[in-house]
Design a protein that fits this description.
The strands form four sheets. A ten-stranded mixed beta sheet has the order 5-4-6-7-3-8-11-14-15-16, with helices on both faces. A two-stranded antiparallel ribbon has the order 1-2. The protein is built from eight helices and 16 strands. It is α/β, with parallel strands linked by helices and 328 residues long.
Length: 328
């Protein structure tokens, strides 16, 4: 079999497995709640990040580790806002030594209440993975955030265990692959999504002393992997056609080989999933005024795309300094 044929066969098998996993069992066995991000990502995520799945976050370059953590913190704040439980942060010891500890007032400014955060420091990656898996299976945390440096033991089987644990406990897992910079497209895992995060300049805030201070957290994000995204062209039934009119008839659903089957497509969540461009970088800005992500990609055309709406949380006595100080 030619390399092209093997690639097509693997892609077909992945689609079949993803469909079986999404449709297995009665619908009542898995009720997925999704955390919206921004429209550019949600169209390929089925509405947002699932609250019972494994989501990977990798820095684009070595210097982007803090940006990857900032992105994970924003997602954790969104999940934490939906549940009364606490968030669990599990980090490999070397990752903390390499990137430094998290800054308390900065966490509060990010929308995370310190009274609802539990931190665990594991001496090595193996124990960190064990702790993450056990925390997910018990179902107690609102979200589990893991920061791993050594990826030697992170295999397809290991990621599958984390995914199944998240499914069992109905707890989202955010896994920061701290040393995977430049490798996001080459990783093989069972994660439902994978993001590559790069640092981006934040807006400047004028200061009375004459020196502008850094504004809200900003980053560039690429959606590298989405297991729910369709593998072919997509036409939204409600989107305008070439002649400007809206099409209300569903398109034909494709068969397993990608060709139209002649069967009417079901206008449900799966039929509305779109393909995503892995090369497209979406610039996100964290707005501390209302604790939402804004898609700055649309700033020139007047689209105000928001998500992760959270109440404003001020760091006691240290708000301005917390917002300006980066994580080291």
């Amino acid at each position: 079999m030619s390399p092209v044929g093997r690639a097509e066969g693997m892609a077909r098998l992945r689609r079949v497995i993803a469909r079986i996993e999404a449709e297995s069992g009665p619908a009542s066995e898995r009720v997925v709640r999704r955390l919206p991000l921004v429209h550019a990502f949600d169209s390929a995520l089925g509405g947002g990040l699932a609250d019972d799945a494994l989501h990977e976050i990798a820095p684009a370059k070595p210097q982007d580790g803090a940006a990857a953590m900032g992105f994970a913190l924003a997602l954790a704040a969104g999940f934490l806002n939906r549940r009364p439980a606490s968030a669990l942060f599990i980090g490999e010891g070397f990752a903390a030594e390499e990137w430094g500890a998290l800054y308390g007032p900065g966490l509060v400014a990010h929308g995370l209440s310190l009274s609802r955060l539990v931190f665990v420091r594991a001496p090595d990656a193996a124990l960190a993975f064990w702790a993450i898996e056990e925390a997910l299976k018990c179902g107690a945390p609102a979200v589990v955030v893991g920061e791993i440096w050594s990826l030697k033991g992170y295999s397809l089987a290991a990621s599958r265990r984390l995914l199944l644990a998240a499914r069992k406990g109905k707890v989202p897992a955010l896994l920061i692959l701290a040393s995977a910079y430049g490798q996001a497209e080459r990783l093989s895992s069972a994660a439902e999504t994978r993001f590559e995060i790069a640092a981006a300049p934040s807006a400047r805030i004028p200061a009375a002393a004459g020196f502008d201070i850094p504004g809200p957290f900003a980053c560039g994000a690429r959606l590298i992997k989405s297991r729910l995204a369709r593998a072919g062209p997509f036409v939204d039934a409600d989107s305008p056609s070439k002649d400007g009119r809206s099409s209300k008839r569903p398109t034909d659903s494709p068969s397993e080989d990608g060709r139209p089957s002649g069967r009417p497509a079901v206008c449900d969540q799966r039929s509305r999933l779109q393909t995503h461009d892995v090369d497209r970088v979406i610039r996100l800005q964290w707005r501390s005024q209302d604790m939402t992500f804004k898609d700055m990609t649309f700033r020139d055309i007047g689209v105000d795309d928001q998500a992760i709406s959270l109440p404003l949380a001020a760091a006691s006595g240290d708000r301005s300094r917390a917002a300006a100080r980066p994580r080291r």
